[in-house]
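Input/output pair, single chain:
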Amino acid sequence: MIRSLAWLLVRRRAGPGPSDPRLLAFARGLALGALVGAAIAGSTVWNRRHTRV
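Output:
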């Protein structure tokens, strides 16, 4: 998913017309949300594993 978004951004910037800043902001927000979600999920798994041991 991230690879296809990066490809879309590169293709969009290479075009002759002006690039849309909303696309870059969307991709940045999507990536940031994925990282935050992964951190929360990892923390939850880590805490559950340590409370069982």
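Helices lie at 2-14, 21-52. Residues 2 and 46 are 25 Å apart (CA to CA).
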